[in-house]
Amino acid sequence: MLLNKKYIFLAVIICFGLKLSAQKVSFDNSNFFYQIYPIYNFKQSIVSLTFDDGSENQFKVGIPILKGMNIPATFYVITMNIDSTTKSLLLKDVSDEFEFGSHTATHPDLIKIGNEGAKQELSNSKSYLKKYFGINSGLTMSYPWGIYNDAIKQIVKGLYLAARTTDPGYNSFDNLDRYALKTQSFDKNTESGTANGWVDYAIQNHLWLVEMLHGINNIGYSPIDSSVLIKHLTYIKKVNDNIWCSTVSNVIKYIDESKNAKIECDFCNDTVYNIRVNDFMDDSIYNQQLSIRIKVPANWDSIWISNGEKVKTEFFNKSKFILFNALPDNKLLTIRPKFLSAPEINTGMRLVYLSANPFFDNIKFSLEVFDQTDIDIILCDLNGKLLIHQNEKSVNGVINLYFDTSGIIKGVYLLRVNSNRGDYIIKKLAKI
After folding, report:
1. Domain range enclosing 262
2. Which residues contact 232 (CB under 8 A, 6 or more apart)?
3. Same domain, 198 and 96
């Protein structure tokens, strides 16, 4: 199975809500199968901590706490308020873990000062942040007082990757407005248990939680006690297996890179994959790794990748996949097994991907079929009533199938795939 300089499109996850029914799965005519996971590092949800205004204790108290727990955060600063002391504090912490975003130059009501005034405020703030804190600063912003309209959003779109509001809520990637990101806000009366509940809700519903904080320990607007922050961050660490905690700009980068990413296979066969992951974007800004799932031969053991990234092996319906992170920077990646076991002779068919179950308005699944087989795909209720029937002739390799189930009522159903060789697959599915 050779692929010489042939582009293979990755599965680009446009819906980040982790409703896997929304994944686009693409492949070529060989047995290769690729996906980009909807959330970095194969997590279920996202949490971004954001701090507004740039009050002194955010840097003197907040950053040391965050550093001690290895938790990133975004700081939206009012650039005209940055004096030499604040600047030196910020310069100590320029890194990918701490984003310095814009809260404008002077914190005005952007609507009241008019479009030209707003553009000046936003561009001056961005220029200052980039000048003093590097190319990865000034990428996103938050609206002063949470005040904005469509005209202000259009100005912001010309300067920033995203913008955070004070509008309450969570962010679903089904209908994400990156220039009106919703937030859950701390005030001086917020307890850690309340904030922990926000995280739980985000995990359960596969959402992006953006938190907003201001003052700490009696300095700044509506300050919280540092003990509340510590308890909340401790909880975030506790549920770390389920969440990607990152800056606002890194999340947006992941979205953009995954939409544009492609894979080029320089040379791939049964013993080695030489691939390139490329998003065709500016690497000086778009420097967020992507989480990739690739189907590999079942007889590959102790799989190694040349960038040294940890590789996790996953099995699904007798198919073997590797999960790893890689920068989409077009550099050559070699994936190979350290050992080869005796290969199995593949016959019949197998399921390599099934979208979310329970499902909503569609079902997506991918089949790997061998030996030029005819298959019938049937969806029926538990009484045997036929709802959907599809026939595929002379199938060989991986095929992608989609059923629109918007006209089907809630309930339990059976998905059955039959081949003319006598093989079959049965899955029980539920619509909610």
Report:
1. 6-42+253-340
2. 192, 195, 196
3. yes
Measured distance CA(347)–CA(16) in Å, rounded: 35
Q: How many other CB atoms sit within 10 Å of the CB of residue 221?
A: 12
Question: Which residue in the block uniquely carries the two structure tokens 């699944």?
Answer: 365
Determine the Cα angle at 173 with ends 170 and 175, to 5°.
90
> 355-414, pLDDT tens digit by residue?
777 877 788 888 888 878 888 888 888 877 888 888 888 787 788 888 888 888 888 888
Reported as a single tens digit per residue, the pLDDT across 257-299 is 999 998 888 888 889 999 999 999 999 999 999 999 998 888 8
Extract the tokens encoding 302.
């102790």
Instruction: Please report, to the nearest 10 degrees, the dihedral formed by the alpha carbons of residues 188, 190, 196, 202 taken in order.
Output: -100
The answer to whether 181 and 171 are in contact (CB under 8 A) is yes
Angle at 161 between CA 155 and CA 162, to 5 degrees: 80
Residue 286 in contact with residue 262, Cβ under 8 Å?
no
Regarding pTM above 0.90, the answer is: no
- DSSP H or E segment with residue 15: none
Q: Could you report the per-residue pLDDT of 79-111, keeping only the tens digit for each? A: 999 999 899 888 988 887 899 999 999 999 999
Query: Do 206 and 61 fall within a single domain?
Result: yes
Phi, psi of 114 (to 5 degrees): 85, 165
